[in-house]
Every structure is written in structure tokens, then in C-alpha cells.
Amino acid sequence: MARMTMIEAVRSAMDVSMARDDDVVVFGEDVGYFGGVFRCTQGLQAKYGKTRCFDAPISESGIVGTAIGMAAYGLKPCVEIQFADYMYPAYDQITQEAARIRYRSNGDFTCPIVLRMPTGGGIFGGQTHSQSPEALFTHVCGLKVVVPSNPYDAKGLLIASIEDPDPVMFLEPKRLYNGPFDGHHERPVTPWSKHELGEVPEDHYAIPIGKAAIRREGSAVTVIAYGTMVHVALAAAEDTGIDAEVIDLRSLLPLDLETIVNSVNKTGRCVVVHEATLTSGFGGEIASLVQEHCFYHLEAPIVRVAGWDTPYPHAQEWDYFPGPGRVGRALAEVMEA
């Protein structure tokens, strides 16, 4: 089996999808000849031509609006927003048009588009290249929200997203592009070539959207995370020696509530970890669901670990970033409660 970085896995997903279906088109800023700012689309234009992989003007609203029109016409656009931070000019198109086409047409039209966007921090990108806006999408009926944590899932989930008849927000944690970053910034990053989830089939496969994965089994406390924070949670469990069960959500909307409830009912404790700002972050929704469905099994209050309620600070990257130290202290807190 091939070994791939997440960049290569994302590219392979688009390659496989474009080869199987002539209606799949890829476009965005610099994705054609240049191959994307992170090189996720490198080589696709040379292979499939300028009508199926092409550059777009610097206009996120125009990019998404064009994709919606293409989808209504019958195409399947897979669009790249260069950074998740840049999607705000297109938010109206995403939430008022793409998310509502199926509902407003009574099912006569669907909107099979994928909006890929690098998300999160850990690369010293500062306030305009490090945001995690997933909660802005999970609040919108009609959207699906996917956040992979490794190359194997990235390819399978992206293929499933491209084949889905409805709009999918596909958030790619940029800190994971080249290795499973666990928050220990002082240590060298292990490359995906040395990680089991760096093994990626070269042909077609799909991972169902809406199904979480248990990355570490345990009986003392459940840690719920997604994206980069999955690896941080695994590192915190290892560092503290606490018998934590780590759930990788993979999909935020739809959400695999069954896996969450079964785990928390078993452990009796819950820590929720995400990189986005704490207030109104998706962790609040998870905590509410756990309280509603697992209240009589809880042995301690639910604890959230998240980013600060500030813009992402360039000078204090590793204080803002929920690293294994902060997650480890949360694990200790719920175990002592």
C-alpha cells in the first residue's frame, strides 16, 4: 500500500474522482498551473486539462457562486478556498444559497459541491491564516461538515464528499498536512510515512460521512476531538498515563452521537477538545449533547479545552494552541472530581 502525506491523499482523492466522473471539476485560487498554495492540486491541470482544473480570480464569493451554478447545472465542483480565513466573503453564498437549494426547490435541485479549505493554526500564520470556523457551518441546516485527522481518512472522506449530493465543507487541518502533529512543538514531527494511517490505497474507496472512529480505547475518561486535536489528545493520554478513550469525530455534521454516548456511558467522564475559540465553539454543542444523553452516567462535570476568546495571536501561538499540557490538566481535573 502507498504511503502518503495528507496533501498527497487529498490530491489522490480528487484524481480518482476526476478519473471516474467527467462531471467533477476542480478550481480555486492558484490551483491550476501552480498546484495550490499547499500543492494539493499539483499535476491535476496537466492531467485533466484547463477545463476541469483551473484558476479562479481572487473572489471567494465569485468562486462559490460559480460552483453553485455549476452544481445546479449538473456538475460536481470541488472548490479550494485558499485558507479557511478567506471564506467570509462567500459566507452568504454558502449559507443562503448552497445550503438551501434542496429545501427551497422541494428536492428538484441539489448542490453537490465540496468546499475544501485549510484550517487551524500551529504554523505561525497569525490571525488571518489560523482560524477554525467550523461552528459557523455546523449551525447551518443543509451543510455537512467534515474534518479529517489523517491521510487515510482524508482521501476516503473527500471521495465520499465529492460523491455526496449536498454541499460539504471539507476542513483540512493544515498542521497535519505533512505529519501527525501532537502539540509537542519542541519535538520533531513524525512523518506520515512512519504512521499507520499514512498507508493509503491508491484506488477508489469512501469513508461514510457521519461515522466517528475510536483512536484509543480506554475506561477512565472519554476525550472527544477532531482534526489536529485528535493527536494532541492521544499525546496527553500517553503523557499522563490516564486510561482515556479518544474519539475522532471525523464528521461534525452529521454527528456520530451513538459512538459518543456509548463511550461516555462507559467511562462516566468527558473532556472535549477543539482548537477554535471557546465561546460558541462546537465543543459547547458536544457538551450539551453529552449532558442530555449521559447525565445519569456522569461522575464529573464535562470539561472543555479550546482556544482563547481572542484573535489567534502570532506571538503566543503555543499558549493559545490547546497542547497536550492543557489537555493533560483537564484529564487530571475530571479524574479528581
List the helices and strands and how they pair.
Layout: E1 2-3, H1 6-20, E2 24-28, H2 44-48, E3 53-55, H3 60-73, E4 76-80, H4 91-97, H5 101-104, E5 114-119, H6 134-138, E6 144-146, H7 151-163, E7 168-173, E8 199-200, E9 213-216, E10 221-225, H8 228-240, E11 244-248, E12 251-253, H9 257-267, E13 270-277, H10 282-294, E14 303-307, H11 317-320, H12 324-336
Parallel strand pairs: 2-3, 2-4, 4-5, 5-7, 6-7, 10-11, 10-13, 13-14
Antiparallel strand pairs: 1-8, 6-12, 9-11
Helix pairs in contact: 1-7, 3-4, 8-12, 9-10
Q: Describe it for me?
A:
It contains twelve helices and 14 strands. The chain is of the alpha/beta class and 337 residues long. The protein has two domains: 2-200, 3-Layer(aba) Sandwich (Rossmann fold), CATH 3.40.50.970; 213-336, Rossmann fold (3-Layer(aba) Sandwich). The strands form three sheets. A seven-stranded mixed β-sheet has the order 3-2-4-5-7-6-12, sandwiched between helices. Strands 9-11-10-13-14 form a five-stranded mixed β-sheet, sandwiched between helices. It has a two-stranded antiparallel ribbon with strand order 1-8. It holds the Pfam family Transketolase_C. Keywords: Oxidoreductase, Plasmid.
Structure keywords:
337 residues, alpha/beta, Rossmann fold, seven-stranded mixed β-sheet, five-stranded mixed β-sheet, 12 helices, 18% strand, globular, plasmid, Transketo_C/PFOR_II, 3-methyl-2-oxobutanoate dehydrogenase (2-methylpropanoyl-transferring), Transketolase-like_Pyr-bd
Task: Produce a short descriptive summary.
By secondary structure, this protein is α/β, with parallel strands linked by helices. Helix content is 35%, strand content 18%. It has a 7-stranded mixed sheet, with helices on both faces. Strands 9-11-10-13-14 form a 5-stranded mixed sheet, sandwiched between helices.
